[in-house]
Design a protein that fits this description.
The longest helix is centred in the N-terminal third of the chain and has 31 residues. Helix 3 packs across helix 4 and helix 5 packs parallel to helix 7. The protein contains twelve helices and eight strands. With about 375 residues, it is α/β, with parallel strands linked by helices. Strand 1 and strand 2 form a beta hairpin.
């Protein structure tokens, strides 16, 4: 009888071990089961496109793309290897952008409306996933967008990564113009070609005009100082050029478009939408002279601020200004990283691994 009881106990013990193993295996599979869903969030007089990709059992990160007018379409290609295993990524196309409805009503293309839109998105996600942390990852204009949202709604957000964002547009514009004036004067002094001298002289006159314009109707001038003039002056406000750029392998565009669920026609439409939105913002004095440095001290949630050493697109001291202005965040909850030999597009440059290591480490710290 005792022997039979012993065999029964052993059998029950083995069954319990097997059961635990099965449950553990199922839980591990569950944790690693990725999702990829698309849906629209209705907002005032529009619908915003969202692609939800990653681990549905982990905290949320909302991707705030650049612009204004940019789109999230290809960010999945960049973020996927670094974040989607451990987070649920929300790729949001902002009002009038990407796969969201086109916006022909310029009165709704404002920073205030965008903050309202994002709040609807956040509330929608909270209703779908009531027990999840929600974090923001903003790049360029998205970095500014995140700061604007936190000023009004930080209670809904766990943490924020501000990459290449701005809080002071006036500094941004004056800083870039100052850098170009310095280069133009240098080349003017060094040049012996009369035609080249005339180019630099005209450039300096135009730069002075733009600097004193008040930045009211700024779309055309912005294209001059961010695209046309830099080419003539041999630098990029957005990208740090290296010798390795010439050695890069050709991009597998077919694979990229497939993974982004984009077609060439969709990309064309997104680019056309981007111009509409960007033109409205760039010709709005409130946006061109945006300065929230004195407002972001209200923020108390964890923030990491990242910028490239040669980011002339927003001004090389912009990140330090933002970090110093976040004076009510505990020292252990805020970080500043100026990454050497990079410019504005940190997530696309050669230091991508280092950049995402910093971002992921920050989110892990505040979500575990």
């Amino acid at each position: 009888m005792k022997k039979k009881m012993g065999i029964l106990k052993q059998t029950l013990y083995l069954l319990s071990i097997i059961t635990i193993s099965i449950l553990t295996s199922c839980e591990q599979t569950k944790e690693k089961s990725p999702i990829d869903k698309e849906f629209y969030v209705p907002v005032e007089k529009s619908n915003l496109f969202i692609r939800l990709v990653g681990n549905p059992y982990k905290p949320i990160i909302i991707d705030l793309h650049g612009g204004p007018g940019g789109f999230s379409g290809f960010n999945h290609e960049i973020y996927s290897p670094y974040l989607e295993d451990d987070y649920l990524l929300v790729y949001l196309d902002q009002r009038g952008s990407g796969r969201s409805d086109i916006s022909n009503d310029s009165t709704l293309l404002t920073t205030q409306q965008f903050v309202k839109d994002l709040d609807v998105v956040v509330d929608t996600l909270k209703n779908r996933y009531p027990n999840k942390n929600i974090n923001l990852l903003g790049t360029s204009w998205g970095g500014t967008y995140g700061l604007l949202y936190l000023i009004d709604h930080q209670d809904k957000i766990t943490s924020f990564a501000c990459t290449s964002g701005k809080a002071n547009s006036i500094y941004q514009n004056i800083s870039l113009i100052g850098h170009e004036e310095k280069l133009a004067k240098k080349f003017l002094e060094e040049s012996t070609n009369p035609d080249d001298k005339k180019i630099y002289e005209k450039m300096l006159i135009k730069l002075s005009e733009i600097k004193n314009s008040g930045f009211k109707n700024f779309y055309d001038d912005m294209n001059l100082i961010k695209h046309e003039f830099p080419k003539k002056l041999g630098f990029s406000p957005y990208k740090f050029k290296t010798e390795n750029d010439k050695k890069k392998k050709p991009l597998d565009t077919v694979g990229v478009f497939k993974r982004a669920k984009y077609t060439k026609e969709m990309l064309k439409n997104s680019m056309e939408k981007m111009e509409i939105v960007n033109k409205v913002f760039r010709n709005t004095e409130e946006y061109n002279n945006l300065n929230i440095i004195d407002k972001i001290n209200i923020i108390k949630k964890p923030v990491i601020v990242l910028q490239g050493e040669y980011d002339y697109a927003v001004g090389v001291k912009q990140a330090e200004m933002i970090y110093n202005a976040l004076e009510n965040i505990a020292e252990n909850d805020k970080e500043l990283h100026i990454i050497p030999n990079t410019a504005h597009n940190l997530k696309k440059e050669s230091v991508r691994d280092k950049y995402f290591d910093l971002v992921k480490s920050f989110f892990d710290k505040h979500n575990n």
